[in-house]
Amino acid sequence: MLSGKVKWGDAAPLWLTCYIHISMKGRADHSTRVELNEAQKKLEKTWGFETRSILVGQAPDPATGSTIFPIYQTSTYTQAGIDDNKGYCYSRTGNPTRTACADVLASLENGIYAGIYPSGIAAIHAVMQIFKPGDHIISSSDLYGGAHRLFNEIMSPIGLSYDFVDAREINNITGAIKDSTRLVWLESPTNPLMRLCDIEAIVAEVNKVNAGRKDDEKILVGFDNTFATPFLQRPLDLGVDIVVHSGTKYLGGHSDVLIGAIVVKDENLAETFKYNQNATGNLAGPFDCWILMKGMKTLAVRMRQHHSNCVTIANWLEAHPKVKAVHCPVLESNAQHALYKKQMSAYNGMLSFEFDGDFDTVKKLVSSTNIFQLAESLGGVESLIGHPASMTHAAVPRERRLELGINDNLVRISVGIENVEDLENDLEQAFNAVA
Predict the structure, then answer these.
(1) Sequence ranges of the chain with CATH classification 3.40.640.10
(2) pLDDT per residue as tens digits for the range 94-108
(3) Does domain 120-247 have CATH number 3.30.565.10?
(4) Measured distance CA(354)–CA(97) in Å, rounded
(5) Active-site residue among 86, 92, 218, 297?
(6) pLDDT at 7 over 60
(7) Could you give the CA distance from residue 356 to residue 95 in angstroms, rounded to a whole number?
(8) What is the 3-state secondary structure of 94-109?
(9) Which of 236, 239, 246 is nearest to 110 (CA)?
């Protein structure tokens, strides 16, 4: 289930001898992969996930032979003459390092275009900016707290309207559709309760509605794939229109970069996001793009270990007498286990659990671990522990949090890739410390 076929073999010499120069003479290059030689495109399609994560968009540097793609730390580019450049004129419009980063992510998500943004929430904001006042958006209710804040406090006052529904039940989505609905926004697994939605089934229902609508009235489906990554789940293949990532998390994988991304498969959407990104300057710098590329090279091996450790920890917690409930679809006892098996190739390192204690007890618990670090964020090689009610979801009103199931005794952990017995022992000593 977790193995990827690396089809390198006799094709290696072609890659090593074929450097594809992308020439966009007369205009700045802010597109991805549009002028790659057809032989190279065909070759890349034969590669497995692991090979593409290492090599797509990252040919050896023709000037020096550098195996690792350079950081083009420049704001501008010298031109031979008016309308005579080498594909780049100004780094807001295009930068080779950002293009390479976008190329590899677009390939991993099976998209045609990726835009790289300064953070995950910046990418979500960029999605919201393609809509206009009066447009209606349906969002899954259990989602990242920063998205709640963006939708309710930034976008709603300027004219977008939102309905938040439990996306586990498709009828909740179809029942919320209005004539003005233009987007269904989803997460799966969700943050912090690890709930799933049936992506393919939701897309099918949206397509039924779209069949009777004009092109400019059709409903798009947007999806935050941060928790799953394209190694475990590829929403574009399931019919989703827009995929967003906080690359800060699993894609980067080392808690050393703040970065986000949008990936699409439709030419019109690609052109819209390209134009808007250039017009607004909402983009990541070359060094951050380089760090993300470095992280994506090891995505597959990291996710395998995250999966293995998380399965062990989830089962250990489920059997622990001080734990009231564990939220993790990888558990066979979880009501959505079958959907997990259908929709994801494996799991990540995320779970949450309800500890048998009150707020003060849980506050002490999350401060008593030695290996699990009390911190925001997730998806790094190191294990993190947090208290959603007072950290990641503090922006959500308490009454709303309780309605969603984000109780004061809920603990979220991002299981890293350390020795799993060490992780169990660390949690056990923390549990004993608050006994």
Answers:
(1) 120-247
(2) 999 999 999 999 999
(3) no
(4) 43
(5) 92
(6) no
(7) 52
(8) CCHHHHHHHHHHHHHC
(9) 236
Residue 250 annotated in active site: no
Contacts of 64 (CB under 8 A, 6+ apart): none
| Three-state secondary structure call for residue 86 | coil
Dist CA 311 CA 164 (whole Å): 30
- What is the pLDDT confidence band of residue 18, given thresholds at 50, 70 and 90? very low
Q: Which of 113, 144, 250, 340 is catalytic?
A: 144
Instruction: Tell me which fold the domain 300-433 belongs to.
Output: Aspartate Aminotransferase, domain 1 (3.90.1150)
Predicted confidence band at 145 (pLDDT cuts at 50, 70, 90)? confident
| Catalytic residue (one of 29, 224, 241, 408) | 224
The C-alpha angle with vertex 225 and arms to 223 and 229, in degrees rounded to 5, equals 155
Enter the tokens of residue 381.
Answer: 């090689």
Does the annotation count 249 as an active-site position?
yes
| Residue position matching structure tokens 């593409």 | 52
Catalytic residue list contains 144 = yes
CATH 3.90.1150.10 residue window(s) in the chain: 300-433
- What are the backbone dihedrals phi and psi of residue 326, each rounded to the nearest 5 degrees, phi first? -125, 130
Which residue out of 234, 249, 265, 302 is catalytically annotated? 249
Does 92 qualify as catalytic in the annotation?
Answer: yes
CA-CA distance, 21 to 33, in Å (whole number)? 11
pTM: 0.91
